[in-house]
């Protein structure tokens, strides 16, 4: 914001108006803006030559650029950042947008994962971008754990939670497992698990294994560790990120399709999930990343609007975001993301999932 204030201080009222109109026109049409177009839109009567001089000054400041020789101007990434920081007034979401989000949340009676899926779909439809919803970890108390052998190299871990949910995970057990060692591992975990969440169970498991080495053999110990590890890894990555509406980005006329596909390939491989949540956690409220301002979008030419959501204890447990072209309608999308994040936080807390 200090940089934005510094740049604003170097601009006259006329240059601010020229800059604002260039950016607003570009965000609406995606096309370069010429001086003759601006002469018809300016509040004061000025010549096209005067407008060209002002645009050259803005180009010198790094705020505008020319995509082609003799073409009009478009905002640079620095220009878009200045516009977002210094010109966009963030209001409440439009009533119609709020109603669509509220309707999505009110019509779902299923589990939280299904609800967040519907919310992501609605958010994508409302903003015409791709939505990202990071679901919270399942922190309900565990009622029962069971290991089921499917093949020598495949097993299933089944978790039954106190709130009635049942979840399954496939994983590769350590070599040499037997039905007896699997029962022993399950018995060991069930003795520890009752009334504890997954994170709480993992916190006490290591100490318990050390203190009870004589009561659990090495094979069962490896199974306990690998079974819970694969569950935790799945919960932190693949199962936690919901991406909807990616076709909205691929359909944009000025989109680099290959780069967008590369971005989503990265997301699908879940290499940058932690980074996504970190982006949300580094500041309060909605954060806006334009183009290459973060590593997720250094090549894709996209912008991210992201907001964390919190539980009743004000702890960040997930995030809601929208990916769109850099010419996103920030004034509309930012309030929508903020509103959705607040509702999701209340909803998750009400359902007792965290």
UniProtKB/TrEMBL annotation:
Signal peptide: none annotated. Keywords: Repressor, Stress response, Transcription, Transcription regulation. InterPro entries: GAF-like_dom_sf, HrcA, HrcA_C, WH-like_DNA-bd_sf, WH_DNA-bd_sf, WHTH_HrcA_DNA-bd, WHTH_transcript_rep_HrcA_IDD. Residues 11-77 form the Winged helix-turn-helix transcription repressor HrcA DNA-binding domain. It comes from the Bacteria. Gene3D superfamilies: 3.30.450.40, Heat-inducible transcription repressor hrca homolog, domain 3, Winged helix-like DNA-binding domain superfamily/Winged helix DNA-binding domain. Residues 115-334 form the Heat-inducible transcription repressor HrcA C-terminal domain. Belongs to the HrcA family. This is Heat-inducible transcription repressor HrcA. The lineage of its organism: Bacteria, Pseudomonadati, Pseudomonadota, Alphaproteobacteria, Rhodobacterales.
